[in-house]
Protein 1
Amino acid sequence: MSARMYAVGALLALLVPALAGAWPVDLSVPLEPGKEHFHKLATVDWVEVEDASVATAEVLPGSNELLLTGHSTGRTLLLLYAEGRFAVWRLTVGTPPPEDVASRLAAARKACPDLKTTEGEERGLSATVKDAACRTALMELLRTDAYVARELDLTFDLPVLQEQLASVVAGLQPLGLEARYSGAGIVLSGTATPEVHHRALWELFRRSVGRVPLSDEVEVKAPEAPAAAPDAGPAVKAEPPIQVEVLPPPKKRKARP
């Protein structure tokens, strides 16, 4: 691996899960409380919403159409998975309190001296991530609605990538899974239940900055059902034992003369 790694924003269409998830989100979707919103996806295996009290998501049977429903004012995240790739969307329901983007952008400019932003049709953010301070400041900024993944152009110094990988590994260890770099991407491996696999993808997203190609080699197995007790057949009511009364032998009588 070279001294620096170049990571670009998602190049695939927004409705197709991207190469891998990391801050910022791939798409920001506004919703209204109590109303439904439909998205047609190219392909999708499953979806999971972080906070179902804010919004829910359902893949309609027999199609790749996604039904989003807003429930209460707020923000939540939606994880989408298809064919070994995943993406994360932000679902914003109603008008939640505004985020403090200005102060976070100022902190990121201070920590990343060459950070540049553009507006208009070429809207985006570029920076060289040289140290942990820059990475941390960018993560705080990119957790907001300020940018989506395709608007990023980041260059990482190798020590920062190693630090980011260490964070990912720490998040995966309690789940029994492993992560390593292969070229410019991260390889996830191990065996997991669907629930643990989902948690691993959330960990990768939350601990990473910028787009990182993913090779998902996790073997997903359904949890084993508990062994059923052997069928003992219908219960039979035990009858009480028969009580037999033993009578004493009859007394001998003398014959009369």
Protein 2
Amino acid sequence: MATKDITEAEFEKTLEDNDIVFVDFWADWCGPCKMFAPVYEKVSEENPDVVFAKVDTEAERGLAAAANIISIPTLMAFRDKILVYAQPGAVNAAQLQELVDGVKAIDMDEVREQLAAQQAEQNTAEDN
């Protein structure tokens, strides 16, 4: 599957309908974004089981703001609708493939347990 441009309106549905979603936040004026685009496209073609989305931060300012994008390119990875990676800066193809493999290997039951424990800890702190 090649990369797919998504809008704010499509963002939630994209996460809802797919197990693993990578999102590249970019802008046309951004030199590093333009250098990263072919790398992102190549790795997307090698991983048809993963959705590789792109968000134009100029056209989708609301979504960029909601995602707290302060530097581009920024790459995010979601697994089962949970943000598991967010980092600004471009990576090379080998690094991106390693990241994709890492996201695929995450034990999501363990992640959900950790999130539940953090939430319980936060609730306890708020009660005190």
Protein 3
Amino acid sequence: MIDGYRQAWTLADATLDELPLDSVGAVPWWPADDNAVSLHHALVRVVSDTQRHAGHADIVRELIDGAVGMEKDDASLPASDPAFWQTHHQRVEEAARSAQ
């Protein structure tokens, strides 16, 4: 799996060295009438998909070892204080209502 990722990384680097971001290619597994994509669009998709799936892996890891957050002694999570959450909820609710 790691070797496959390294091969994809090498190919991606070569592609970025050779082509401008507005180059258009095709994603073969997308529908033929909607598979044209710029290199820029493809890069954004890869970054987005990578962070999303890395987040999934982190959730699985948290379920396995019970640890949360970025560091053992600092969960980087918001306070569990009910007053914090009430204030946070009110702030989000006000923002949502003002955006309507």
Protein 4
Amino acid sequence: MSTIHLTEDSFERVVTRPGIVLVDFWAAWCGPCRMFAPVFEKASEKHPDVVFAKVDTEAERNLAAAAGISSIPTLMAFRDGILVFSQPGALPAAALEQVLTAVRELDMDEVRSQLASRQPASSDA
């Protein structure tokens, strides 16, 4: 499966769907982004069960700002609508495979439980 391009309008709809979504925040002028692009594309062909998406930070400045992107490339991984990984920097192919394996092996019930325990308790007072 080839990569899809996300916009401010499509981002939330795509990353909140069930399954794994990897998002590459990039820009055409960014050398490391251009080096990472073929690694990301090749992985998308190897893992058809994963959604591989790209956000052009120049065209989607508001989206990049909302996502807190301060360095590119930045890779984010979502699973079942939950952000489970975010890291700036171009990853080599082997490291990208490790990220995918780790995201696949997550116990999402445990992740949801950890997220719930971090929520502030509501007050009835």
